[in-house]
Design brief:
Length: about 260
């Protein structure tokens, strides 16, 4: 009986996370490189300006302070994005569209289910978080957060900095950034996001016993390459002394990134 209970605890009470692979959903590949039209993310920016609490090493969101009017503003913004046809825009506009949409949807999920201690508590009894739940419909296609990140963003753009752009409402995650992604400034914004995360201890923590890295570098090893390539990537953005990746451990904090 004790063995049965122990197995049950391992299966159903401990967080188990297997990162999805990058698998292209080819429907979302079309784009129009000649189209110079933009998509406004001003409403999302206003919400960030009002509710994002910025600290040197961590941004926090005031989920419990969002007014009824601003909840409606967020819903309206997401609805407006959902009726756009991303195929009509160029790649940079598409990238900003998908990243801002992902982050806005994540914030909406937390607000709608608040109070909650962690995003991994959402999604049902046997689910690790809400990432596989249908959350939006675009072009008559039902999408999940995992679809946006792993079937659109990662395979189409193939840029490891995507992991610093999408936010999962957790303290261990790269920060929800103060500025909405802008199609005219993507490369600079992605570099800023990488620099901010990599120079925080939640990404790289050096102790006398070795180096603790964010589990992001374990889950998405395929995106960052070999250990040598990962080391080069980290050192490219570090402003403190370079790291040598030996005696590595991985960790991640799923606690909610909230400001009370």
């Amino acid at each position: 009986m004790r063995i049965v209970i122990a197995i049950w605890l391992l299966l159903f009470t401990l967080p188990i996370f297997a990162a999805p692979k990058s698998e292209l959903w080819s429907y979302w590949q079309p784009h129009d490189p000649k189209n110079t039209n933009k998509i406004s993310h001003q409403d999302w920016q206003q919400l960030l300006d009002k509710y994002l609490f910025i600290q040197p090493n961590q941004t926090l969101f005031r989920y419990n302070q969002v007014s009824r009017a601003d909840k409606q503003k967020l819903a309206t913004y997401i609805k407006r994005l959902s009726i756009q046809n991303p195929h009509r825009y160029n790649r940079d506009v598409q990238f900003a569209y998908w990243v801002n949409l992902y982050n806005a949807l994540t914030v909406q999920l937390i607000i709608d289910n608040y109070p909650v201690k962690s995003i991994i508590k959402l999604g049902g009894l046997f689910s690790f978080g809400p990432w596989n739940q249908t959350i939006i419909t675009i072009n008559n296609k039902k999408l999940t957060l995992n679809d946006i990140e792993h079937r659109i963003l990662r395979p189409i753009w193939q840029d490891p900095r995507i992991h610093y752009a999408v936010n999962c409402a957790s303290l261990g995650c790269p920060d929800l950034l103060p500025k909405a992604f802008n199609s005219d400034q993507l490369d600079a914004q992605l570099d800023q996001a990488a620099t901010r995360f990599i120079n925080s201890e939640k990404a790289v923590k050096i102790t006398k016993d070795g180096i603790t890295l964010s589990s992001i570098y374990d889950w998405y090893q395929a995106d960052f390459g070999s250990l040598t390539e990962l080391q080069q990537h980290l050192n490219h953005y570090r402003v403190t002394p370079n790291v040598q990746l030996t005696q590595i451990r991985y960790t991640y904090n799923w606690q909610l990134n909230q400001k009370l």
